């Protein structure tokens, strides 16, 4: 053994065996120099990462609860570069974009808004979701801390909630920076549901608008109306009814056949509206397509379904010397059922108020039944079995001319599903037009090229579907109103409208 090795000493802070006779305790990372943080009433909370509309509605909803909350700007390519500069290597797109977006925002507060680093660390807190599973999602907090420390914001506070526990986790969080109460989550979910509904209407209308930009202008008005309803504690249903008049002003021409493209995949990549997925939705619309993204409420219903399955397994588990009748899980089961009923009720009320008629919340039991022959339902990482189920559903029920599954490069759960299991699905349903595609922050040209090739086939299918119909000489004006949403076996919006007129000409 060399002299260098013999002279090595154990670091007193990290080495030694002194821990052997100490009582176990939770390890916590703390800054070297104690920081006197601002009291709760002066603390400003930051978050973001959902759609642009939902982030702003959540900001208004939480401010209505007395929480000083700011929604971060939409992550852009500079956010990605910032995340890569301060983050570890080998992380996925959502990590780089979201971590970099937070660091970029704090740098702007320091460098352009005149706030000192000490004031930022003292007053600001970032809220994020945490969890476990077969991907990097469980390491996000560590990545945030590492990037913030390297960017000069050591000691900046982060608070997280387990996305799988929802309203059941409030009492388990020791550092109550936020009160994760049922009221907090109910208000949050209301904002998410309304955002889903308004976004879906936007995607239905924008491809057919006569005047470019008119749909976005109407959606901006709706966002302001709903935000004010949250802040003023007034009726959200009345606010959504008021949004009808704003959306009704948008002139549409809905007789141009356009391919309908279902977008699904990894949660963040399929949801974000910016550089994180190469502005996929705007690109598809510019190429002449109508998008049908998966709303966030689907992921919420999956979490509730998984909670039900976990409870069922617990109840049927055979325990030696166990009680024949165990009521310990009765409260949890009742809360799950109440939560599911509340989500469906609020969605239905809000959808009817603003005029979304042709969308139903997916039945998770039916989707699980569709996927069980291809995907082990007990594997709950990522989107679970939803991607497989949605693809099969799209084929069987004529929901889309093209199905795109998008995920970050190297996303373990989604890549395993789309690049592995989905190959079996497409082999059994050869008529499906399916594209699995990854994002990496760079490489947009290849991404767009692959989408365009798949979209060409979808355009041909939409055109053929429309041309098989005999368009009546007289077409009522109502077909150009967004409230006209017929339901039949056709896929494209134009074909659905003409088919509905043929069968019900009055």
Core attributes:
four-stranded parallel beta sheet; Rossmann fold; alpha/beta; disordered N terminus; 506 residues
Task: Write up what this structure looks like.
This is 2-hydroxyglutaryl-CoA dehydratase. InterPro entries: Dehydratase_Activator_Redct (IPR051805). It comes from Sulfurovum indicum. It is a single chain. The chain has about 500 residues and is α/β, with parallel strands linked by helices. Among the domains are: about 40-170, 3-Layer(aba) Sandwich (Rossmann fold); about 295-315 and about 330-465, no CATH class. Helix content is about 50%, strand content about 10%. It has 18 helices and 8 strands. It has helices spanning about 5, 50-65, 75-85, 95-110, 115-125, 140-150, 180-205, 215-230, 235-250, 265-270, 280-285, 295-315, 330-355, 365-370, 385-395, 410-430, 445-465, 495-505; strands at about 45, 70, 125-130, 155-160, 260-265, 290-295, 400-410, 435-440. The strands form 2 sheets. A 4-stranded parallel sheet has the order 2-1-3-4.
Strand content: 5-15%
Name the helicity range: 40-55%
Mean pLDDT: 86
Structural class: alpha/beta
What is the count of DSSP helices, taking H or I runs of 4+ residues? 18
Give the total of beta strands: 8
Order of helices and strands: HEHEHHHEHEHHHEHHEHHHHEHEHH
Strand order of the largest sheet: 2-1-3-4
Oligomer: single chain
Distance between the termini: 95 Å
Taken from the alpha-carbon principal axes, the silhouette is: globular
Largest sheet: 4 strands, parallel
The stretches of 5 or more residues where confidence is low (pLDDT under 50) are: 1-14, 165-174
**Backbone CA Rg:** 25 Å
């Amino acid at each position: 053994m060399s002299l260098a090795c013999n002279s090595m000493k154990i670091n007193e802070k990290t080495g030694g065996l002194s821990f052997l006779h100490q009582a176990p305790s939770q390890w916590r990372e703390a800054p070297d120099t104690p920081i006197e943080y601002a009291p709760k009433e002066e603390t400003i909370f930051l978050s973001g990462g959902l759609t642009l509309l939902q982030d702003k509605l959540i900001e208004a909803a939480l401010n209505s609860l007395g929480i000083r909350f700011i929604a971060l700007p939409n992550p852009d390519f500079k956010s990605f570069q910032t995340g890569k500069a301060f983050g570890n290597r080998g992380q996925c797109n959502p990590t780089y974009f979201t971590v970099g977006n937070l660091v970029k925002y704090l740098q702007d507060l320091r460098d352009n808004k005149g706030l000192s680093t000490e004031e930022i660390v003292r007053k600001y807190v970032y809220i994020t979701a945490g969890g476990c599973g077969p991907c990097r999602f469980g390491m996000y907090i560590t990545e945030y801390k590492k990037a913030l420390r390297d960017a000069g914001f050591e000691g900046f506070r982060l608070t997280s909630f387990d996305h799988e526990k929802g309203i059941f986790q409030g009492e388990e969080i020791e550092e109550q920076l936020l009160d994760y109460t049922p009221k907090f989550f109910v208000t949050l979910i209301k904002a998410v549901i309304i955002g889903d509904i308004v976004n879906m209407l936007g995607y239905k209308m924008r491809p057919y608008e006569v005047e470019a930009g008119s749909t976005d202008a109407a959606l901006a008005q709706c966002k302001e109306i709903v935000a004010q309803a949250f802040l003023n504690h007034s009726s959200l249903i009345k606010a959504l009814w008021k949004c009808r008049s704003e959306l009704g002003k948008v002139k549409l021409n809905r007789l141009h056949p356009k391919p309908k493209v279902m977008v699904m995949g990894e949660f963040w990549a399929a949801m974000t509206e910016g550089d994180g997925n190469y502005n996929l939705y705007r690109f598809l619309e510019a190429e002449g397509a109508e998008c049908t993204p998966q709303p966030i409420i689907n992921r919420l219903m999956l979490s509730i379904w998984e909670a039900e399955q976990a409870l069922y397994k617990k109840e049927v588990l055979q325990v030696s010397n166990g009680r024949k009748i165990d009521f310990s899980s009765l409260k949890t089961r009742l809360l799950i059922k109440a939560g599911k009923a509340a989500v469906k009720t609020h969605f239905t009320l809000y959808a009817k108020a603003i005029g979304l008629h042709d969308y139903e919340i997916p039945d998770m039991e039916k989707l699980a039944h569709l996927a069980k022959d291809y995907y082990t339902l007990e594997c709950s990482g990522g989107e679970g079995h939803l991607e497989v189920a949605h693809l099969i559903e799209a084929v069987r029920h004529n929901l889309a001319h093209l199905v795109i599954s998008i995920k970050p490069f190297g996303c373990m759960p989604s890549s395993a599903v789309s690049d592995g299991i989905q190959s079996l699905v497409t082999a059994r349903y050869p008529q499906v037009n399916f594209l699995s595609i990854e994002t990496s922050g760079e490489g947009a040209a290849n991404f767009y090229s692959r989408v365009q090739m798949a979209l060409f086939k979808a355009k041909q299918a939409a055109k053929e579907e429309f041309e098989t119909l005999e368009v009546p000489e007289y077409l009522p004006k109502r077909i150009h109103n967004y409230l006209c949403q017929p339901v039949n076996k056709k896929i494209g919006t134009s074909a659905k409208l003409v088919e509905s007129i043929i069968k019900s000409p009055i």
